[in-house]
Amino acid sequence: MAALSDKLADAYQNARPRYPIDWFTKLAARTGQHKSAWDVGTGNGQAAIGVSFFHLVPKLAEYFEKVTATDINEAQLKRAVKHERISYHHTPTTMSEDQMVALVGGDNSVDLIVAAQAVHYFDLAPFYNVAKRVLRKEGGLIAVFVYNDIIISPEVDSIMKRLVDSTFPFRTPVMNLAFDGYKTLPFPFESIGMGSEGKPIMLDIPHKLSLKGFIGFLRSWQPAMKAKERGVELVTEDLISKFEDAWGDDDDVKDIFYKAHMIVGKLSASDIERHRKRFDTNCVVTTLKDHNNSAVIASVTAAAFAGVAAYCAYSARKNS
């Protein structure tokens, strides 16, 4: 996502919906452990807050004790909601794969990866490489979701449709991934029955929206910003006047909903096998015997990440 100005970052934060807590409840119920989650492309931290707030739900009190939230956009991170379970990190595109893996927690360390309204902006090949490395091999999940439409009222929706149609000349292939509801998004993970590559599940996000919030949504909307970069103002004062007339009372806060699309997956057996072979290559196991004949030392010769070290130690014990 292009870096937003401070003013537009404020508009973005005020206009976007919060993701329903039941989404994360369902995801947590399918993960094997609840120690670590990674919200990648966190923006202002909406999904990070979602995955960290499990301590408010009695039966989920121990879920996702640590949430690592990352983004390339510093303006957004400055507005992220602080929480004791969340650590926010600026991750410029110059970071290497190994640096990203280490930052998130190491190989085989993350129980849930969430990319909310974000993955279509990523360089997918390196992101998926990192995801497959850090995702816990047993019980780890990755979830990507996007909302691509807003339903307000027949009067407002008809004007919005004309605005959406006017963005066609300015859309990039990245934007079209979102407009298509991730139906064309590559997603090299095994389905768990919550969508799959080419077949995302459809969901609604209920939200309350004021006219001011709606105008903020339009002005921070990526297609409109892209058009403006090319010298075309799509969100004109005339258009805003039409929306105001269709809205009715300026002070009216409407119950609206966003149309969302989600895909959830896990590592395939072949991915896990490739990961195991990579770990085996990186481990040089030396068995030493102490006076109890039980000490084992595993040295990691490639990357000294916690996940690799843990695997090597396990392998050493298993083979001793």
From TrEMBL:
One BP term from GO: methylation
Origin superkingdom: Eukaryota
GO cellular component entries: cytoplasmic stress granule; nucleus
Keywords, ordered alphabetically: Methyltransferase, Transferase
The keyword Methyltransferase belongs to this UniProt entry's keyword annotation: yes
GO terms assigned for molecular function: S-adenosylmethionine-dependent methyltransferase activity
Methyltransferase type domain span: 55-142
Protein's UniProt name: S-adenosyl-L-methionine-dependent methyltransferases superfamily protein
Organism: Arabidopsis thaliana (Mouse-ear cress)
